[in-house]
Amino acid sequence: MSLCQEEKVVSLPSRKKLRRRQLVEKLFGRHARALYVFLRGRSVPEEQINDITQEVFAHLMIVNGLEKKMSDSLGSNRSYLLTMANNMLANRHRKSRVRRAYSAAQLAVERERRDEHSPERIVEAQLELEAIKAVILGMRPHWRAAFVLHRFHNLNYGEIAVYMGLTKKQVEHYILRALRKLRQARRTIQNSGEHWC
Fold first, then answer.
1. Integer Cα distance of 129 and 196 in angstroms
2. What does the alpha-carbon distance between residue 171 and residue 150 come to, in Å, rounded to a whole number?
3. Cα separation, 50 vs 126, whole angstroms
């Protein structure tokens, strides 16, 4: 390939870009004011008007078949640009709503996290634990032993029965009684206005 042929291959895309830039500059010259008035009429802040205008004309640089879409008819070109600006404005509003909703959700999660570890919540949880501990310690010895072995030592009913020298049915009965006692204490705590962990 000769140097002359290489220049033609290399310069072809740049010529296309040059023509596209000239077309966009021509469109900007003709329609930038109309775009400004359109956006201003939609109560868009001044700094956003400039941003959206730049976005519209920057986007025109990459639109496929722009030359075909832009006829010499002034009205259809202007309509195309105003529609594009309107769509960009709608996208900005949508993104803004999503960002606000996301920020609000993050704030709620952070607030909830702070509440979980607030000094008041820690003291409340400690008081609830003390109340539960008192209920467990106040159970009949067999109920308490079966419950503790099952819940805190992860023994099944058969293992507890062997350990305590009871039948599985007796172990089941003791654990049910212990759970009933805890549920009763839970209702008492809830009715008194305290929270249950």
1. 9
2. 10
3. 58
CB 27 within 8 A of CB 73: no
Give ∠ CA 188-194-197 in degrees, rounded to 5: 95
Give the Å distances, CA to CA, from 186 to 150, 155, 182, 195.
Answer: 20, 24, 6, 9
Q: Which residues of the chain have pLDDT under 50?
A: 1-10, 195-197
Q: What is the DSSP string of 101-116?
A: HHHHHHHHHHHHHHHH
Distance separating alpha carbons of residues 182 and 41, to the nearest angstrom: 67
Structure tokens, 101: 């909703």
Tell me, yes or no, if the pTM score tops 0.90.
no
Report all structural domains of the chain as residue ranges with CATH numbers, in order of start.
3-114 (no CATH), 117-191 (1.10.10.10)
In terms of Cβ atoms closer than 10 Å to its own Cβ (0-12, 13-18, 19+), residue 149 is buried
- Tens digit of each residue's pLDDT (9 = 90 or more) over 58-87: 888 888 877 777 765 556 888 888 999 999
103 CB burial (10 A radius; 0-12, 13-18, 19+): exposed
Q: How many helices (H) and strands (E) does the chain have?
A: 8, 0
